[in-house]
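On clarity, I found the account of how folds are encoded harder to follow than it need be. For illustration, here is how one protein appears when written out as sequence plus structure tokens:

:::
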Amino acid sequence: MSAGRTMKRRLRGTIAPIVFLSLVGYFGWNAAQGDHGLKAEALRRDLLGKARDELTKAEGDRDAWERRVAGLRNNHLDPDTLDERSREMLNLADPGDIVVLYPPKERLY
């Protein structure tokens, strides 16, 4: 009987550390691998960096288009932009221009 009591005491003595280590292991794994863990944070930072790069590119495109459109406004008419648009709309070219023809399915814009 003393062997049985010894086993029970040892079992009771190991239950608390096992439960504690299991909880620490569970929370430690989730801190590294979980939905809000370290890997997810790195992925979110990477996606944020890519989104910022795309935003910078989109803002640059927007600024370029705003400059082109500003040349066609009534209060300030840029002769070069007007000439470019009129030639494009009328499908004409100046004798001094170099014309590069594209196939119909390969449009520039």
